[in-house]
Write a structure and sequence with these properties.
By secondary structure, the chain is an alpha/beta fold. Helices cover 42% and strands 16% of the residues. It has one domain: Rossmann fold, CATH 3.40.50. Helix 1 links the parallel strand 1 and strand 2.
């Protein structure tokens, strides 16, 4: 039985990972972001000391909020990440698993789909902070031997995601369509993203947490996505197919921080982790719609239903 500490474990991704690990029989300690902000380095040392794997999902912003307050975005997220890395350095053992943003850190893609060695060229405050956190992880891996693994995750969606947060087009659009609301599409609708259901991302993260340690100077980095690009208009059409009716939408001005295309090459995860997504977009949307219909008032309060 492995011991896991999940920082940000009360959030969307953290709740799913915690539930899956508990089902597998592992010991899980969930730590909300509020607990982290209240404690200093001594509190972090105490929280992380006994963990075999520390999961860092405690990110305080989304692209929209980061764009509005880039100073606060950097201060809240990077300071915490450095504190976690310092605690891992002091304890001298265990693995740190950090969830980065495969949908943003690569910027404008020179290669589609993007492999892990694609240059990082973040074009938004959110992406810059994620890339900066990755660089600090690499620093602590190289200088102090901290066993850090990076998951660059595509565009997450699924039951338990807050559709009012301004993050996660698939869940947001599904929720709004179910409520009969008119969808707002930023730009011409041709922006392409790599959508991954949270169940598949969770399975990939668990594979990363359990993978054998790697020797060498390179920090392990893996893309976790579907490997398939879907435009916003295609996403709307996929939802229409699920609901059996047309969905109203309007176009809004394009957002300057949205890269035109983001698709991830997941070949390394297939090869090294024996991981691949099980749900295509249609199956993932079907599950998401079922979750939203089952208990819309509590959809953020608990992990997936089953």
């Amino acid at each position: 039985m492995s011991r896991h500490v999940i920082l940000g474990g009360t959030g969307f991704l953290g709740r799913h990972v915690a539930r899956a690990l508990e089902r597998a029989g592992d010991h899980v300690r969930v730590v909300g972001r509020g607990e982290l902000s209240e404690g200093g380095s001594g509190e972090l040392d105490r929280l992380l000391q006994a963990a075999d794997v520390v999961h860092h999902y405690a990110w305080a912003t989304v692209p929209g909020s980061a764009a509005l307050d880039p100073v606060g975005d950097l201060g809240r997220n990077i300071a915490l990440t450095l504190g976690i890395l310092e605690a891992m350095r002091r304890r001298g053992g265990g693995r740190l698993l950090f969830s980065s943003s495969g949908g943003s850190v690569y910027g404008r893609l020179r290669i589609v789909p993007a492999p892990e060695d694609h240059p990082l060229w973040p074009l938004s405050a959110y992406a810059i902070a994620k890339a900066t956190a990755e660089h600090y992880c690499q620093l602590y891996h190289a200088l102090h031997g901290v066993d850090v693994w990076i998951a660059r995750i595509g565009n997450l969606y699924g039951g338990g995601q807050d559709p009012e947060r301004g993050f996660g087009a698939a869940t947001t659009f599904a929720s709004q369509a179910l409520a009969g609301r008119t969808l707002e599409i930023w730009g011409d609708g041709k922006v392409v993203r790599d959508y991954i259901h949270v169940a598949d991302a969770t399975a990939g993260l668990i594979r990363l947490a359990a993978a054998p340690a790697m020797k060498g100077a390179s920090m392990p980095v893996y893309n976790l996505g579907s490997g398939v690009g879907v435009s916003l208009l295609d996403l709307v059409h996929a939802l229409e197919s699920q609901l059996g009716r047309a969905i109203d939408y309007v176009h809004r001005a394009a957002r300057p921080y949205d890269v035109p295309v983001s698709v991830l090459d997941i070949g390394a995860a297939r090869r090294d982790l024996a991981w691949a997504p099980n749900l295509d977009l249609a199956a993932g949307l079907e599950l998401t719609i079922a979750d939203l219909r089952a208990d819309p008032s509590a959809r953020f309060a608990s992990p997936f239903r089953n």
